[in-house]
Amino acid sequence: MPESSPMTSRRRLVILISGRGSNMQALVQACRDQAWPAEVCAVIASRPDAQGLEWAREQGIATGALHHKDFPSREAFDTALAAEIDRYRPDYVVLAGFMRVLTPAFVNHYAGRLVNIHPSLLPMFPGLHTHAQALATGVRLHGCTVHFVTPVLDHGPIIAQGCVPVLAGDTPDALAQRVLEVEHRVYPAAVRWLAEGRVRLTADQRVEVEGEPPRLFTGSGMG
Ligand code: GAR
Known about the structure:
This protein is an alpha/beta fold. The chain has 2 domains: 9-110, Formyl transferase, N-terminal domain (Rossmann fold, 3-Layer(aba) Sandwich), CATH 3.40.50; 117-222, Formyl transferase, N-terminal domain (Rossmann fold). It has 6 helices and 10 strands, in the order βαβαβαβαβαββαβββ. The strands form 2 sheets. An 8-stranded mixed beta sheet has the order 3-2-1-4-5-6-7-10, with helices on one face. A two-stranded antiparallel sheet has the order 8-9. β4 (92-95), α4 (104-109) and β5 (114-118) form a beta-alpha-beta unit. α1 (22-31) packs parallel to α6 (172-195) and α5 packs across α6. The longest helix has 24 residues, at 172-195. The protein is globular. Glycinamide ribonucleotide (GAR) is lined by residues 17, 19-23, 96-97, 117-119, 144, 154, 180, 183.
C-alpha cells in the first residue's frame, strides 16, 4: 500500500495515453462508482492531439499533454512528464495505450506504482503489431497482459491476463477488437486489486497477491 495517502481515502490514479483512450475510458467508468477504491486525478497524453484527451476533458477530468518534439532528449521529456504527473500526487500511474519507451530513471521513480496493459499474452509478442504477429505465428490463443513496468519494454511481473481464441478468417483488426473487449475487463479489475492493496510488487520483483482473485480472464469465443 503506498504511503502517500491514508488508508481511508481512494487511491489516486494518473492515466497516461497516446491515442484513442478506450482503456482509459473503461477505468474512468469503473471509478465513477463511489465504492471503487480509486479515482482518476488526471489524464496526460504524449501528444496534444491524442483523441482520448477530449473525452477526458468532457468528463471534467484534469488533462495535460507533452510533445516529445518539444524536448531535446528522451531524458528531458521523461523528466518533464514526471513533473507533470507528480503535480497530482498519484498513488499509481497507469499506462493505457501510452506508446513511448520510458527511461529507466522514470520507471524507477514509480517502482511498484507503474502498470501497463499490453495487447498480447506476454512474454509472447512484445512491441508493436501484436495481433498481426499472433496471426503470422499461428497461435490459437491470444490476449492481453497487465503488468508492472520495468525498464525492459513490455516485460515486467504479470498481474493478470485475458485470453481470446484466434478464429478462422481473423484479420488483425478483428482480433484486436476481440482482445480490446477483454482488455476493458482485465484492466479495471487489476487496478482495483492494486488500489485495494491486494496486489503489490515485492523487492525481488515478484507479484504478491492477497486472497486469490481470478487472474486469468476469458473473452468472447472462449466458451
Ligand atoms: C490497447 O490495445 C493497448 O493494449 C495497447 O494500445 C491499445 C490502446 O488502445 N497498448 C500497447 O500496445 C502498449 N505496448 P486505447 O487507446 O483504446 O486504450
